[in-house]
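User: Could you check the structure of this?
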Amino acid sequence: MDIERQIANAPRTAAVGVAVTELGGTCVGCNNCRGLCQALIEVMTFPDAILNRS
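Assistant: Sure, the predicted structure tokens are below.
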């Protein structure tokens, strides 16, 4: 069986990626910061999620 994988359209993920690159760093003040993490993603997407609630 052949499987063809394609990149899905993910505008919110792309927007988070752009915002991360514009930060100039990836830390939100956590101890032992190791770069992009769930805490940073939540901080960046939570306000948008609240504003766009249906």
